[in-house]
Design a protein that fits this description.
- Pfam families: DUF4232 (PF14016).
- This is DUF4232 domain-containing protein.
- Keywords: Signal.
- With about 220 residues, this protein is α+β, with helices and mostly antiparallel strands.
- The chain has two domains: about 1-80; about 95-220, Sandwich (Immunoglobulin-like).
- The chain contains one helix and twelve strands.
- Strands 1, 2, 6, 8, 11 and 12 form a six-stranded mixed β-sheet that branches. A four-stranded antiparallel β-sheet has the order 5-4-9-10, with no helix packed on it. It has a two-stranded antiparallel sheet with strand order 3-7.
- The protein is elongated, with a radius of gyration of 48 Å.
- The N and C termini lie far apart (about 140 Å).
- The relative contact order is 0.15.
């Protein structure tokens, strides 16, 4: 009887032990499953974050590529600046071959054509009025007034020529008080001058040097 009670007690103890072991196994499995789910969630979050980063990076690259079109546009603008009417640098005196010649159309109207040839290697602008002073035999210099005319766009490619003229009335009485010997020319938008001889055969100036007028440059075409 005592033996039977011990055996029964041992059986109950073994069953309880097995029950506890089974219960602990379930918890372990649940913890493992929970950790796996957490790890998966973290991995998914990381992957999502990476996709967002890639998407943003692609957008920035697209913006950068789109922005490069501005450079292209700038390149086109720079090219357009060399075309007639565009923005170009003004012709330098050192790059111009300048000459003066008598071009009077008749005995009453005096005219001197001053030609400027672009002997430089780049296109330049000679648009506007040249500065002109007439030097007299007594070594005085007299500025020439501008005529009533609007400047015309004058773009010179290498080898091209521009011309402007001086106009005055001719004195045929032989009593002219003007004795011009030289013409000092400063091209438009320049500060350096050239000294030209007064053209041989040009008629005498009627009145004073202030009666001579200079007109804007234009091309010879």
């Amino acid at each position: 009887m005592k033996h039977t009670r011990v055996t029964a007690l041992a059986a109950v103890s073994l069953a309880a032990s097995l029950s506890l072991t089974a219960c602990g196994g379930d918890d372990s499995k649940k913890d493992s499953s929970s950790k796996g789910a957490s790890s998966s969630s973290s991995s998914s979050s990381s992957s999502s974050s990476g996709d967002d980063s890639k998407s943003e990076g692609g957008s920035e690259a697209g913006d950068a590529k789109a922005g490069s079109g501005g450079d292209s546009g700038a390149g086109t603008a720079a090219k357009g600046a060399t075309e007639p009417g565009g923005k170009v640098t003004f012709c330098r005196t050192a790059d111009l071959a300048i000459d003066a010649a008598n071009a009077a159309p008749d005995e009453a109207s005096g005219r001197i054509d001053i030609t400027m040839i672009n002997r430089g290697s780049t296109t330049c602008s000679a648009t506007g009025f040249a500065g002109v002073d007439i030097k007299d035999a007594d070594n005085t210099s007299n500025p020439v007034e501008r005529g009533q005319a609007q400047p015309r766009v004058t773009i010179l490619k290498p080898g091209d020529a521009a011309v402007f003229n001086l106009a005055y009335d001719i004195d045929n009485t032989g009593d002219s008080l003007a004795s011009p010997t030289n013409i000092l020319v400063t091209p438009p938008n320049e500060t350096h001058s050239v000294n030209l001889k007064w053209p041989a055969g040009a008629g005498d100036i009627k009145g004073a040097y202030t009666d001579v007028q200079v007109y804007p440059t234009h091309t010879t075409d």
